[in-house]
Specification:
- By secondary structure, the chain is of the alpha/beta class.
- It contains ten helices and six strands.
- The protein has a six-stranded parallel sheet with strand order 2-1-3-4-5-6, with helices on both faces.
- The model has no long low-confidence stretch (mean pLDDT about 90).
């Protein structure tokens, strides 16, 4: 039996998926979680073979949950998402995610992906993979990306400057350059755009 943990903050989707996967003879759903933090703690406790993680959950997202799980136990992780952005795929793969599937796929397909990754293989939805290959590269410098990372949770210019050992004026210059390159009005918009594209 392949032991599966499911994490999705949408109750109806999580319950429906658990019910459908439980009909498969070789799959056993050992836990259903509503957020990323719970998924990590339950995975460490139950040590499932495969964790099926929704990308967008409250607190930590599916990619971060997968990274934390993979650091501690040998569970395989599959991320499912409604918005399959190519940048997120790159971030997921670099975090050690084993599968990446859009929520539009039928439950039978998801079961097949679970079997694939449980057998030690990786699975990336072909459409997402094709989009990722043609997706744009970051126009931002490494230092500009550092500034976005350091301010991703709304930290002040002074906080960012202190954490990166820069002056506040230098950080402001980097922020101005970032906004100009991306054609955006605020640092928050830039951080969201960079995260969605998998740059940070």
């Amino acid at each position: 039996m392949i032991r599966v943990l499911i994490a999705d903050d949408e109750d109806m989707i999580r319950t429906a998926l658990a019910t459908l996967l439980a009909l498969e003879e070789d799959l056993e759903v050992v836990a259903e979680c509503a957020d990323g933090e719970t998924a990590v703690s339950r995975a460490l406790e139950l040590r499932p073979d495969v964790c099926l993680l929704d990308l967008e959950m409250p607190g930590i997202d599916g990619v971060e949950a997968a990274a934390r799980i993979r650091q501690r136990i040998p569970a395989r992780c599959v991320v499912v998402t409604r918005h399959a952005r190519p940048g997120v795929l790159r971030r997921a793969l670099s975090a050690g995610v084993d599968g990446f599937v859009p929520k539009s796929r039928p439950a039978g397909d998801v079961a097949a992906v679970i079997r694939e990754v449980a057998a030690g293989r990786r699975y990336v939805d072909p459409e997402i993979a094709a989009d990722a290959l043609s997706d744009e590269r970051s126009p931002l410098t490494d230092r500009e990306l550092d500034v976005l990372r350091a301010g991703a949770r709304g930290e002040t210019i002074a906080d960012i400057a202190a954490s990166l050992h820069l002056s506040s004026g230098t950080v402001r210059n980097h922020v101005s350059s970032i906004l100009g390159k991306l054609g955006l009005a605020t640092r928050q918009q830039a951080a969201i755009a960079a995260r969605e594209r998998g740059w940070i």
